[in-house]
Input
Amino acid sequence: MQNLDPILQTRGLNVYYDTKKVVTDVNLDVARNRITAIIGPSGCGKSTLLRCFNRMNDLIPSARVEGQVLFDGLDLYGPDVDPTEIRYLIGMVFQRPNPFPKSIYDNVAFGPRINGFKGDIEEVVVRSLHRAALWDEVKDRLKSSALSLSGGQQQRLCIARALAVEPRVILMDEPCSALDPIATLAIEELMRELSEHYSIIIVTHNMQQAARVSHYTAFLMVEESRVGFMVEFGESRQIFTNPEDERTEAYITGRFG
Amino acid sequence: MVRADFDRSLEDLQAELVGLGEMVEKAIIKSMDALQRRDLAMAYEVVAEDDLIDAKRFELEEKCIDLIATQQPLAIDLRTLLAVLHIAVELERMGDYAEGIGKICMIIGDDVPVEIPEQLSRMATLGLTMLRRSLQSLVERDTVLADDVWDSDDEVDALYDNVCHQIFLDMGQHPDTIEAATHFLWVAHDLERIADRATNIAERVIFLVTGRFGRYVGPAAGD
Output
């Protein structure tokens, strides 16, 4: 824990929807080239917190963010920051695979193209599909519709699409909740591989998944008086074998509420 | 309580583990009684009954494996199951030492008049107390008591050194009793190991409660 090298940091982070506070005073360090899991019961603000990391909350009109989110020291909510640019550097993968109704190739090429990429786009597509562990399965059908792929393949395609624009961080919001156990394990395996080069934050309801895949875990909770506050953060092996806070223990052992 | 069924299983498992502890306790008492009284029938019973202890250990182990596989335990639940697994093995081994003493009784037989070194019964009493207290520390999740059990082991070790020394002296003075005396060395060794295993149980209790290996470090002194 002492040597955590943060790529992202939140400082005194509060998020409101209108006047309702949904994230309360979160100070979280996200380690570089590691996987950080955010766990907690429904409504604890974990997805909202995740969306703060690439300003996706800007798209929700009633949302308001207070405090700082630092990306290698740069305040993402500073006046000169372009949220679109941030979303290339900090990509996102969603709960349900959401490929565009285009070919497999065009899905991956989409980001670099609209980004005005001038280099060898085919090379980017091939590399991204390789990194997303999908190449072998799709190399002979790159022109087929992305929608012809299985759910697990579609999700890996979405990861490849995110990788094509050379992000530094990948945010994953329940990326396996629509997948079967085998496809889930394939994504988890992929996440571990990707974490050598990318920093990953995953929101998951699946405690076993957080325990299997993540290096660090943050536990968020909701109480009557406050919502979305961080109870405990630590190395996952410690959180899942010997958490310090009894509320964390109650949650991960399924004795919550 | 969301996991009432799982909680009941954990409680039952602990009760069964304590039950195994009681079987082992009886076996040790009986083996020492058999030795003191030169009661070969009783010694035979101890040896035969060890199969029940072994069977109970495997039964507990299977139940732990089932719960690990079906309940995916984490944190305190995981540590509880790992502790039960470990302690069941420790108890089973303690049963083996009682069985060993039973076998020695049968080897010594009941015809040669040999005096049994008095330290042996003292060692047995201490070992039994350590066993009982280690299981009490488990039931009460009492790390201070567990730590205390750990301390008691020094006393048993000292008695062991002492009895070995005396047995060697006796061997020199009464060469005709060398064979029986050698067997008493084994009894002493078994009793010393029983105390070691009780210490291991105490160690597991500390792990179960604190998640740390080694001696209990109180909140004030630790962290």
